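Exercise 7.
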Amino acid sequence: MIKTSALKAIKKSLFIVFLFLLFFDGKCNRGYRKIAEEKAKEEAGAAKKKIEAEHTKNLLKLIRGVHFTEVKRVFDNGMSFSPVGYQLMPEWRISFPSVDSVNIFSPKLNKFLNAPVMFDHDSIFNVAWAWLKLKYIKKDSMQFMVLHVHDDTIVTEKVHVFMTFYSNSYLKDVLHSDTAKLWKPSREDTAYIVKKTALAKSNRDSAFAGTDPPVLRSRSSIITVSKEAVTDDVEGGKAYDAYLSPTYDIVIHHAYENFSYLYTAFVDEKGTITFRKSLTFIMPEFKKSTLEAMTGITDGYLKLYLDVSPARTLGIPHTSIIFLNVVGYKK
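Solution. The predicted structure, written as tokens, is:
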């Protein structure tokens, strides 16, 4: 009887060990299969990337040595203006002397600079330090989509920009046109700015930056005003900070007291300046008096001693926001 029980226990133990070994072996096999599948997937991705890069290179060979000028730059919606008033400006002049390099003109340096071209997957490559996706390429025209890349990952939720190029020979011999004509804003752009202007007039919180920012001029010796300069980058083009956040340094002499405030103000379509909000932290117990002081300085000094011309976009005056650094000296 004892021998029978011991035999059953041994058989049961052997069966459990057998099941464990079977499970462990299956788990190991699944692990090996997963590793093999991931490796095969990586190899397939690398092969696909190589094929796509070669395809893009072959397309660039079609236009090797051809000089192109950018004729249009727009957002996804076809507009060249963003909701905040930023205007896209076509400005690139490029050529590909080889499939691995690009010549791009620098307006600031007044010469062409050579930059490497690095290829990635799906017709995506890095040219002139920007990530682009080739939308189409022909002998006389091509289009790129500018990509937003962060930590080697394309940020798809960002609004994308499209750049269209024509060859110089096509512009001259076929279109008989120049970039000055092609760069003019479209009727849709003009209608968009007219609509935004009306909205900002009825609700100044809808104010937007003017490509020609407000001009502030002093009409008294007790107040001086200067607009902070913004330096363009090496690639040239219009420095957008110069009009998206125009900043003015204002010094008031013979003020009622010494003060220094940093704040924003509205300038409406008629050039009327109105306090908006402080840009510095204010202790709760001083908030009311400080905001009243900023408002009083705007109404009592700036409106009285400054001539203000409003911001303009496409020649249309509209409400915008300016940044003010106002310093007062009692003596």
